[in-house]
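**Reference record**
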Amino acid sequence: MVGGSPNDHRRGKAALYLLLCLLLGGLPHWLPQGTWRWVLSLSAGLIGAYALRTVGLGAKAVQTDPPSQQPPTAGVDVVVAARDEEAVIGRLVERLTALRWPQSLLRIWIIDDGSEDRTAERLVELQQRHPQLQVVRRSRQAGGGKSAALNEVLQRLQGRWMLVLDADADMGPDLLERLIPYAEAGGWAAVQLRKAEVNSDQNWLTRAQAMEMAFDAVVQEGRLAQGGVVELRGNGQLLRRDAVQTAGGFNEATITDDLDLSFRLLLAGLPIGVLWNPPICEEAVPTLPALWRQRQRWAEGGLQRYLDYGPQLLSNRLNGTQKLDLIVYFLLQYVLPIVAIVDGAAAVLTASRPFFWPFSLVAVALTLSGMVAGCRRTSEGPALPPASPGNLVLGIIHMLHWFVVIPWVTLKMALLPKKLVWAKTAHGELMSSPTNCSEYDLATQVLNCTPEDERIIASEGGGV
């Protein structure tokens, strides 16, 4: 188990980081402007060239399944940390027990992390039907969040691989048959599956998130192709158990165990791969308040890791390409949103032109090209939204929320003490429309429900 920096120490770092961003965005308006504009325009051009090359490489990525392997010999532990998930836990267990993998090599672990609904009762019923299901129970006050829940079960695992899923995850029965050979052939310490939103057609917000996840997967593939850094995304992450133990387990002083583990694997020289097909399917949040809560957590956890591991990331533990990749995406993800807001405010106060608009243009170009590339890829699972002009405009507008979330979260981190809590995303009934991963012929995206599928779905409270 790894402990992060004390929260008050992070608070001081966040305050210093915020101050530097404020100075970077504001000072150019009160200094001689000619040189500044040239320097910033040149910098934006170089960063843009790197970022767009990333998308180009991701768009060209061709996935080939490894050649046929010998019968499976690797043990796999599927691990799910669940809190108040009675709406989806039954369906999840049915999907997991349908995975094609030797029963002697597959164990399913559900960590009931202090649920106060009927999750515990549902798990008792499911254990009676599925002997390979292992249930670990923690009290609501146990502390440490999801990382502590994962650490508690980590010491009990025996398989070579650990597949971490969220309670709303869905997948095809051939997932392990394709994922494990890919991971073994590539020599990966971890592999992140593309995340596909099963309810992308529910409303404009879920459609935008489906495009965002496709964009993210394309960028991840591109970063990997040019020797950059791939990040874990929590749901659908396959981890080699010995690699996690080498990295020290899951950090209980962070709110995003996946992002934190990504950096610790990176620093340990343990490579992470990414897989476009098959995807791991999940539910996009359908409302703006839910999105706001979720993205605040993602933003805080993402920035926390830079504050915790910054000096190590700049050390000789990483090569030059990895450092360049981290700098480019740190600037675009975490610096630009704050600096752009300050730059705009200073431009109004001084009646001058903004300085950092070329960087914002780079961010828009990166998003547009990534969404086009992602939505046009051959994709298994739920169909991706078409890359139409209307959808692309929607995608850009959606991504602007980061220009609000990042400054707000950074301000909170700098000014307010932090109490670590597990702020889970609520999961609902995904089967209100037939978009579930398991219902698709994963090679053709053709709906393919059998009568037995319909019986299982109906028993879990959905409909076909």
The radius of gyration is 22 Å. The beta strands are 76-82, 106-113, 133-138, 161-165, 190-197, 237-240, 272-282, 440-441, 446-447. Residues 1-6, 430-435, 440-464 have pLDDT under 50 and may be disordered.
